[in-house]
Amino acid sequence: MVTQRGLVVFSAMCSAGMLWSAMLIAGLFVGWRPVGSGLAVGVAALLAIPGAIAGVIANRLYYRTTDARRPWSLVSWVPPHVPHWAAMLAGVLFFGFWLAVVVAFAGLDGNAELRNGHYVINNHGRIATVSQADYERQLDHEQQISLGILGAIAVGGAFLTAAVLTHTPASDPHPASR
Known about the structure:
Layout: H1 4-30, H2 37-62, H3 74-77, H4 84-107, E1 111-115, E2 118-123, E3 126-129, H5 132-165
Helix pairs in contact: 1-2, 1-5, 2-5, 4-5
C-alpha cells in the first residue's frame, strides 16, 4: 500500500502537473512558449502519471469491501466522505482540460512536418506547403492535446490521492466491511 507521506508527495506532484499543464495551455492560447514541446509534455507526464497510478492503486486497495459490487462502481471512485463541492471542482477542472483537447483537435489540420526545408502539413497523404506561422500553430495544437490529456490525468490523480488522504476512520460508513 502507498504510505501517507507517499500520497502527499503524489498529490502535490499531480497538483503541480495540473498547474504546469494549465499554464502552458493558457500560454499557447496567447502565443507564449516558454519551453519546448518535448520538455513541456515530458515534465507534465512526470508530474501527472505516477500520482494518478498511485491514486488508483490506493483507492482500489483502501476502499476494497467484502460486499458484492462491481469492481469499478462509482462509490469506489467517489468515496462517501468526499464533499460534493470537491467532486464538482474536480469535474470542472477535468472538463476544462477536456475542452482544451477538443479545441486543439478542431484546429488541427494534419501533421506538421519539415520536408526539404519547407513547412508542410500532411493530412492523410495530402501535402500542403504552409507558412512558418501555420506550421508552429499546428505544433502548438499537438502540444495542447498532449498537455490537455496529461492535465486531465493529473486532476484524477490529485482527486484520488486526496480522497484517501482525507479519509478518517470516523467517516467510514462501513467499518466492518474493510
